[in-house]
């Protein structure tokens, strides 16, 4: 379930298309296979409630009681617009979606509310169920003045992830096997997490480890690649070697390196992150009762302390948004590649409709592809070989969730955690440096203690939206 409030700027809703155009900007994503309830509230503002679409098995009375509980402290006007989003809503008919809308109408009445309109939105058309035979093109929504206004204001709504675009899905699938093998070699080469055959071309950033196999170096260069070619950033990441991509995956899967990377993206300084990593590693050796090979410098100790504070969202910031958004895009491509090489982290059909325990379905624009020509496995537990890879894939998704926390999008972060937490737990935490640590557990812990970093409450320091990054760093500030 996701609740999001209205934008601060005044938005005038003059038509149903305007209302439908506003919803993705309100919830932070294009809804897919879900339902959104739009409530007018006090002072001419509004609230969106995103929940799983009910099915024929859903008890509308239980759903209504749940809805009433959720809205108990919301000053709404007693009216709601119900919108059912479905990939199955095609021009030939919306019978299935009409059933979901009817369940919502019963639930809403049970909660003491009035349904103003019931709408259905599909991939190509949308319907007002008062006229179910009249299919209207979704272009009317995209061409709405409200959509243009929200984009101009720097909307936080994210476009569909590249893994869901047919062009990229096929390219991800082609790379998946090669990158997976490179990552497996990386982990099994005589215990060295960075084998000599894995090299990263390009200039070494100043004052950090010149070893081209270092994950911080690999990430620095990857982020620079997407910053240099912002309009073709997916191509830029896919242009990196398999070994380079494997180093990027290993970096976010290692607990201490991941902390250092988050610090690098927040501060915009890989050099500070390298110093912090040295201090963190020395501290872990001491905590384990060992003796560090060399004593960390005072600068490394200071940066390690700053790193811990910064990663928790409690530093003097604000983040270096250009670097952080560049890293976000690299992570999206890694997620797409890993997703094409294994089973999805969470299938939306596995989520029970209307369940309060769920944070909503995945933000899908199409199903991930898996290889259909695998040889039958003789392993009685065929998933055992994929456990390390599944855990690494979960680390990538959890790192995306952490960046969403820094952006002030806690509900989106929670959706991402719902994709990976169960699989990460099932795969085990064999790579965790600290007992009990994992990427998903780290993010969940920080969300519980500080769901919104301080910089998110002031527009001067908050995330400026994806449009600023796309236009380039020169437009920031």
Could you provide a short overview of the structure?
By secondary structure, the chain is of the alpha+beta class. It has helices at 16-27, 60-70, 95-110, 139-142, 145-152, 166-188, 215-228, 233-238, 242-253, 255-267, 270-287, 298-311, 321-340, 387-407, 410-427, 439-449, 466-471; strands spanning 2-5, 34-41, 45-51, 79-85, 114-121, 125-128, 136-137.
Structure description:
The protein has 477 residues and is of the alpha+beta class. The chain is 48% helix and 8% strand. The chain contains 17 helices and seven strands. The chain has helices at residues 16-27, 60-70, 95-110, 139-142, 145-152, 166-188, 215-228, 233-238, 242-253, 255-267, 270-287, 298-311, 321-340, 387-407, 410-427, 439-449, 466-471; strands at residues 2-5, 34-41, 45-51, 79-85, 114-121, 125-128, 136-137. A seven-stranded mixed beta sheet has the order 1-3-2-4-5-6-7, sandwiched between helices. Strand 4, helix 3 and strand 5 form a beta-alpha-beta unit. Helix 6 (166-188) packs across helix 9 (242-253) and helix 15 packs antiparallel against helix 16. It is elongated, with a radius of gyration of 23 Å. Residues 1-7, 190-210, 343-384, 426-435 and 473-477 have low confidence and may be disordered.
């Amino acid at each position: 379930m996701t609740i999001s409030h209205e934008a601060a700027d005044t938005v005038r809703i003059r038509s149903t298309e305007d209302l439908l155009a506003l919803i993705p900007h309100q919830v932070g994503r294009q809804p897919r296979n879900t339902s959104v309830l739009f409530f007018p509230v006090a002072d001419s503002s509004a609230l969106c409630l995103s929940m799983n679409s009910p099915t024929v098995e859903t008890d509308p009375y239980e759903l209504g009681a749940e809805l009433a509980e959720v809205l108990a402290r919301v000053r709404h006007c007693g009216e709601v617009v119900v919108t059912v989003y479905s990939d199955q809503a095609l021009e030939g008919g919306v019978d299935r979606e009409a059933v979901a809308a009817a369940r919502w109408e019963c639930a809403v009445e049970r909660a003491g509310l009035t349904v103003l309109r019931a709408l259905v939105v599909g991939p190509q058309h949308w319907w007002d169920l008062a006229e179910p035979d009249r299919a209207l093109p979704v272009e009317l929504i995209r061409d709405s003045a409200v959509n243009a206004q929200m984009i101009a204001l720097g909307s936080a709504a994210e476009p569909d992830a590249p893994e869901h675009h047919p062009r990229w899905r096929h390219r991800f699938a082609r790379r998946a096997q090669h990158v997976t093998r490179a990552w497996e070699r990386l982990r099994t080469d005589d215990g060295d997490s960075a084998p000599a055959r894995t090299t990263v071309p390009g200039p070494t950033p100043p004052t950090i480890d010149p070893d081209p196999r270092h994950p911080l170096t690999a990430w620095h260069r990857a982020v620079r690649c997407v910053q240099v070619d912002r309009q073709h950033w997916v191509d830029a990441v896919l242009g990196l070697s398999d070994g380079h991509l494997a180093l990027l995956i290993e970096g976010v899967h290692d607990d201490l390196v991941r902390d250092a990377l988050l610090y690098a993206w927040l501060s915009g300084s890989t050099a500070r992150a390298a110093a912090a990593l040295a201090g963190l590693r020395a501290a872990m050796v001491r905590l384990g009762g060992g003796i560090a090979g060399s004593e960390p410098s005072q600068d490394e100790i200071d940066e390690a302390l700053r790193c811990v504070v910064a990663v928790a969202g409690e530093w003097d910031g604000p983040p270096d948004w250009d670097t952080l958004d560049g890293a976000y895009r690299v992570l999206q491509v890694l997620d797409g590649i890993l997703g094409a090489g294994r089973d999805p982290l969470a299938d939306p059909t596995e989520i029970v409709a209307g369940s309060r325990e769920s944070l909503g379905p995945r933000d899908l624009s199409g199903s991930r592809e898996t290889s259909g020509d695998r040889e039958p496995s003789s392993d009685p537990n065929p998933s055992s070989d994929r456990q390390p890879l599944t855990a690494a894939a979960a680390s990538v998704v959890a790192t995306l969730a952490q960046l969403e926390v820094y952006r002030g999008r806690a509900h989106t972060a929670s959706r991402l955690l719902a994709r990976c937490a169960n699989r990460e737990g099932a795969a085990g935490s064999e790579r965790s440096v600290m007992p009990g640590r994992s990427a998903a557990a780290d993010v969940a812990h920080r969300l519980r203690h500080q769901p919104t970093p301080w910089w998110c409450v002031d527009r001067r320091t908050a995330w400026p939206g994806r449009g600023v990054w796309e236009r380039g760093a020169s437009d920031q500030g």
